[in-house]
Structure formats: C-alpha cells, structure tokens
Write a structure and sequence with these properties.
By secondary structure, the chain is an alpha/beta fold. The strands form three sheets. Strands 6-5-4-7-8-3-9-10-11-12 form a ten-stranded mixed sheet, sandwiched between helices. Strands 1-2 form a two-stranded antiparallel ribbon. The structure holds adenosine-5'-diphosphate (ADP) and magnesium ion (MG). Magnesium ion binds next to helix 2.
C-alpha cells in the first residue's frame, strides 16, 4: 500500500511590519494567538496598531481592544503615524472596543462598543464577540491583556486560554499585548507563555548610555522562524525590523552583526 503524504500549506497572515514576515517565513500562521511581551516603551502598542492598520489597507477588518488608553487618545496616536482609522470605522471595517472608560465621560458616549464592567473578563468577551461578528474581524489586538489579571496573577493563564478559545474559534489572528517590568526577562504572568500559540518579545536595553531596541521570536506554532535577536527602529512610519542584522547582549556588552 502506498501512502500519499500531501503537505497542506498553512495559511499565513502578513503582519505588514517591515522585516517581520521574513523572520516568520511569510507571516503569522492564521488563527494564531500571539503574546507580544515587553517592558514599557518597547513599542508594543505601536506594533499592534501597525498590524491592524496594514490589515485595513488589505480590506481585512480588525478590532483593537483598549484596556489602557482612552479610545480618543488611541486614534490620535495612530494618526501620528499616518494611520487614520476613522474612515475605516465609518465603513464598519475597524472598531475599538472601549474597555477603558467604563462608559464614563462625554467622549465615551460616542463609542459603539463599550465594556461597562472593565474588570469582568466575561463582560469584555461578550462585547468583543459581538464586535468581531458585526465587522467580520480577521485581526484582533488586545492592549493589554495584563490589565485583565494585574491584581490576580493566578488568573493569567486561564484568561489567555479563554481569549484564545474565543478568538481562534471565530477565525481571528490575534495579538495579546503583555506587559513585563523593566528587569523581567519573562513573558508577563505565570503560564501565559504556554497558553499562547506564539511569543514575540520586544526589548529595550541600555548599554553605555544608549538604548537599543530588539525583537526576538521565542515561539510560533505552525512555522519555522528566526532564532536570532534582531534590531529594530521606531520611525514616524512605525516599526522597521532589520532581518539581516542581529544583535546579542552578553554581560552588559552588545554585539551587532
Ligand atoms: N514618531 C516616533 N518616532 C520614533 N519613535 C517614536 C515615535 N513615537 C513613539 N516613539 C517611541 O515609541 C515609544 C512608545 O511605544 P509604545 O508602543 O507606546 O510602547 P509600549 O506600548 O511598549 O509601552 C516611545 O517611548 C518612543 O520611544
Ligand atoms: Mg502600550
């Protein structure tokens, strides 16, 4: 008996972040839930917004779940990179799920998707599920998932699992922003790294009085990927990764190639 092995090519989602898709051999495997972890100022929010905006340009609807910043502020921040989401919101291709204001304040009254109980994961999931279905979202960014279990770290893994079931189940490719402290080399909460399909780590290291940005793909289910640390920049057009350059940091010394 002969056995025919047919290799099914996996579907990939282009991140649209210059350099990243090369590191991922073509893009993020579809339906993956990727944990994007890093300290403050490492570029996590910009990364997530850039991923969503690129999707919009390709007519791939997206949702940003705002847990840490006012939706009004997010629109302003994005427009500074030339990512104007208002026209896409008007067309029903993009939505911000407001899990920040709890519906309090004048500006919040204009938001379409508001989570009233911001500390209730199930309330958030109800609103998110509705938003995904209404706009047909293919990309989702949660900024940040850490906010959901800040006061109860034991809930971290379960929360990520719950989100993964919903997001992946609805066919979305997702980025969960995860905050870590400046000195922590982990991924932000016990067990979260096991629940996620992928882990991308952004770092900011001070060497001899200068800060260096770098990215490391730690894990990505469904694909081979670069195992090196690569430098990147944040420019007025967003994040640019240098896939042909590597960077290593050892005992306070930095090696660039
Ligand atoms: N127009 C810009 N050009 C270059 N760097 C920028 C620009 N805007 C923001 N940044 C950098 O991005 C950082 C903030 O990125 P952000 O994604 O908000 O970080 P995080 O979400 O990881 O805390 C700022 O500290 C600054 O260094
Ligand atoms: Mg941020």
């Amino acid at each position: 008996m002969t056995c025919l092995v047919v290799e099914v090519p996996i579907e990939r989602v282009e991140s649209g972040i210059p350099g990243l898709d090369e590191l991922l051999r073509g893009g993020i495997p579809r339906r993956n839930v990727v944990l994007l972890s890093g300290g403050p100022g490492t570029g996590k929010s910009i990364f997530g917004q850039q991923f969503l905006y690129y999707g919009l340009l390709r007519r791939s609807p997206g949702i940003l779940v705002a847990l840490e910043e006012h939706p009004v502020q997010i629109r302003i921040n994005m427009s500074q990179f030339g990512w104007d989401v208002r026209e896409f919101e008007a067309k029903g291709l993009f939505a911000i799920v407001d899990a920040f204001t709890a519906g309090i304040g004048e500006a919040a009254k204009h938001e379409r998707y508001v989570v009233r109980a911001v500390d209730d994961v199930h309330a958030l999931i109800d609103v998110l599920r509705r938003a995904i279905k209404e706009i047909g979202a293919e990309r989702v960014v949660v900024d940040s998932v850490s906010t959901l279990y800040m006061t109860k770290p034991a809930m971290a893994r379960g929360t990520v699992m719950l989100l993964k079931r919903v997001l992946s189940g609805l066919g979305c490719t997702s980025i969960l922003v995860s905050q870590v402290s400046v000195t922590e080399r982990g991924f932000g909460g016990p067990g979260v790294e096991h629940a996620a399909d992928g882990i991308i780590r952004l770092d900011l290291d001070e060497i001899n009085g200068r800060l260096y940005r770098s990215i490391l793909i730690y894990k990505m289910r469904g694909t081979a990927h670069s195992m090196m640390r690569h430098p990147f920049d944040i420019t007025d057009k967003g994040i640019v990764i240098y896939p042909n350059k590597t960077l290593s940091i050892s005992r306070g010394k930095l090696y660039e190639e």
